[in-house]
Design brief:
The protein is mainly beta. It is about 10% helix and about 30% strand. The strands form seven sheets. Strands 15, 16, 18, 19, 20, 21, 23, 24, 25, 26 and 27 form an eleven-stranded antiparallel β-sheet that branches. Strands 10-9-14-13-12-11 form a six-stranded mixed β-sheet, with no helix packed on it.
């Protein structure tokens, strides 16, 4: 399967090849700002280039060309009806390969189709779009008559993390929970004046942020999903919904505001990116680039979080003083947490868990210790920042009574928060910044979880010299700085493999590697450039989730397989798809890792990929789908007979506006681009990839 895709060497001025529009509205142009982490801590990033074990060196010697998994692909193009997208002119179709169980499909070729392009033999449908009504009384979407009240009852904007939870007693139905990361007002409103947004536009944006819970019904003969509008469990959580602040920082003077002198109640959640599902049946949601919503800061602690000194892009501070740090200095301290939602109780207040720390949480995924305590992994999505683990001290209870559910909702309020430190096992002189292998034939090493603070029912204790426990939980980045945590290249989603217990960390990219005074190569990041990202594999000591020691090694280094600096767990590179900028990850029932990308820099649109993590096909990576122009692949969610992805910010291209969309997805030419959830299934009714 020869790679026929011309590799485009794009300008990296926008992170990961994103448009300037995406940079403005999703993360507040984070990559144009000074790197918030100016410490001298050791750095882990673009972990190699050629990190081949001795065995994989032998296997790779036979590889002459590298591969893009090409194949005939079916697409849903711009129109509502499914239709085949033309094959990309760069590629030739391939025959299906058997592949690892769960990955037996014809790979989709890298392409630039304005469509969701899927493998031969698969079907798809748009499950739900931005603006579709889900609550009782909510009107049908009408972009010319949109109001904040209407949006508060409709599916939100820019869906990201997805979860499907069972719905006992309602056959064929599940609860779909989705994050709504951010709004792009230029694509939402015709005639939008970025310098002078209206009050109504701002309030619509507040209502379009947050979370949605909506019951969906499956079609028995396919994987098609349809929303059940106005179901009593349907719910919207917005930027003005009341939250409970829980855990060790709740009630702290650092969290008190004029509107909430108790420091225990917050309004809204912002920039929810990835998340997780707990074993006790709730969902977790990470507040990521919250910094961009707050204006007029002058504090060093805020600078460490990337909070600006002037006005914000959206100008929300004009309409609510809580977004003006000069007027409400503590409001910003109430964002940057992991949020917990109980989808089975639409009247319950969601919670912000301060014990999991405050930073740009990409997400939060959970596994249990052998004695039933929760362990939560989370990455801080910033160049040169860290990844963390929380180990709870209370055991989960089984059952569904109100008392049991209330107990389980408190599990993330007591325990110890840790940050990761990684060490290589080769002499420093052997790491020259080119990706050349050290003498032991691979890049790997050991690591430790450094404790930052412990919360108990009686109080909290800091393990960081010079910081109180409350300061650790509110200024977690500074605590990581002080203990010498390892700098990473935008640590995003982190997911433990349910079959093996190994933990996989997606690191999207970091083009600042080795630039100026930024950290240079070490064993964990031997290249002096990282536009394509990589994935690390961690093995906790004794495979115990609560261990404080681990081993790490390179699992995948993204990029063009023709590039000798790429690596696919030792699998021959003429049998893999090219991948760039890994972001969200998930596992299927076979233990395969599924990776969605954000800002791919190989000339193709972003997509979803599956890769085997064990067996003789370990490292075999195959592209399952691509998304339309300007879009990012989010979600993802892999079930036996269905794959779900969130198609985020379709049409978000430089020069695009609501009046002049540059993508026709999903509703056809001339229509507003609407972020949406898409379901994909096998047309023959069999399981995915078998």
């Amino acid at each position: 399967m020869r790679n026929l895709l011309p590799i485009v060497r794009t300008n990296d001025s926008h992170a990961g090849g994103r448009s300037a529009l995406t940079c403005r509205f999703r993360c507040g142009d984070a990559c144009f700002h000074e790197v918030p982490n100016t410490t001298a801590n050791p750095y882990v990033g673009d972990v190699i280039a050629g990190a081949l074990s001795r065995r994989s060196v032998m296997r790779a010697a036979a590889v002459v060309t590298a591969a893009a998994a090409a194949g005939t692909a079916a697409s849903v193009a711009a129109a509502p009806e499914a239709q085949a997208a033309p094959a990309d002119r760069w590629h030739k179709p391939n025959k299906p390969s058997k592949g690892a169980r769960g990955l037996r499909f014809t790979p989709v070729a890298p392409n630039t189709n304005d469509a969701v392009t899927i493998p031969d033999g698969y079907g798809q449908n748009v499950v739900i779009r931005w603006g579709e009504p889900i609550l009782r009384g909510a009107p049908a979407f009408d972009p010319e008559k949109q109001t904040a009240k209407a949006q508060a009852g409709q599916f939100g904007y820019n869906c990201d993390f997805l979860a499907l939870l069972p719905l006992p007693g309602e056959r064929g139905r599940q609860i779909l929970v989705a994050n709504h990361e951010y709004t792009d007002e230029i694509l939402m409103f015709r005639g939008y004046d970025a310098a002078n947004p209206t009050k109504e536009q701002v309030e619509i944006a507040w209502a379009a942020h947050g979370l949605s819970a909506v019951v969906v019904e499956g079609e028995s003969r396919t994987g098609k999903l349809t929303p059940v509008t106005r179901h009593p469990l349907n719910r919207r959580v917005t930027a003005t919904t009341e939250f409970r602040i829980t855990g060790p920082a709740a009630g702290s003077d650092l969290l008190k505001t004029s509107a909430d002198p108790t420091g225990t109640k917050a309004l809204g959640t912002l920039n929810n990116c990835a998340g997780g599902v707990t074993p006790w049946g709730t969902t977790l949601h990470g507040e990521e680039n919250f910094n961009q919503y707050f204006a007029n800061s002058s504090r060093a602690t805020d600078k460490r979080y990337g909070i600006g000194t002037g006005a914000t892009e959206r100008k929300w501070e004009r309409f609510d003083k809580r977004f003006d740090v000069a007027q409400e200095p503590n409001e910003v301290h109430r964002f940057g947490y992991v949020v917990e939602l109980d989808p089975y109780d639409p009247d319950s207040a969601p919670r912000k868990h301060t014990a999991l720390g405050r930073f740009k949480h990409e997400g939060a995924t959970v596994r249990l210790t052998e004695d039933g305590r929760p362990v939560v992994y989370s990455g801080d999505d910033e160049r040169f920042d860290y990844f963390y683990k929380f180990v709870g001290s209370k055991r989960m209870k089984k059952g569904s009574s109100r008392a049991v559910r209330e107990h389980n909702l408190s599990l993330l309020d007591e325990g110890t928060l840790y940050v990761a430190k990684l060490t290589g096992d080769s002499p420093a002189m052997e790491i020259d910044g080119t990706g050349k292998l050290p003498s032991d034939g691979e890049f790997d090493g050991s690591g430790e979880w450094i404790p930052l603070a412990t919360a108990t029912a009686k109080g909290a204790v800091s393990h960081v010299e010079g910081m109180t426990a409350e300061e650790v939980f509110v200024f977690t980045r500074l605590a990581g700085d002080k203990v010498g945590a390892t700098k990473m290249d935008r640590p995003e989603d982190i997911e433990p493999n349910p079959h093996t217990g190994k933990v996989y960390v997606a690191l999207t990219n970091n083009s600042n590697r080795g630039v100026g005074t930024n950290a240079k190569a070490d064993e964990a990041n031997p290249r002096n450039a990282n536009k394509h990202g990589h994935i690390l594999e961690l093995t906790e000591r004794w495979n115990r989730a609560d261990s404080t020691k681990f081993a790490w090694s390179l699992f995948l280094v993204a990029g063009d397989p023709n590039d000798p600096a790429t690596y696919f767990a030792g699998f021959p590179k003429d049998d893999v798809s090219p991948i760039s900028c890994p972001d969200n990850v998930a596992f299927d029932d076979y233990g395969n890792l599924w990776i969605s990308t954000d800002g791919a820099q190989l000339g193709s649109h972003d997509g979803l990929f599956g890769v085997a993590t064990r067996g003789d096909r370990r490292g075999e990576l195959k592209q399952f789908l691509t998304v339309p122009k300007g879009a990012e692949t989010c979600g993802p969610l892999v079930q036996d007979r269905r794959v779900l992805v969130a198609v985020q910010h379709p049409g978000e291209l430089d020069g695009a506006t609501a009046e002049k969309p540059l993508s026709a997805w999903p509703d056809g030419p001339g229509k507003l681009n609407r972020p949406a959830v898409v379901a994909v299934w096998r047309k023959d009714g069999c399981d995915i990839g078998v």
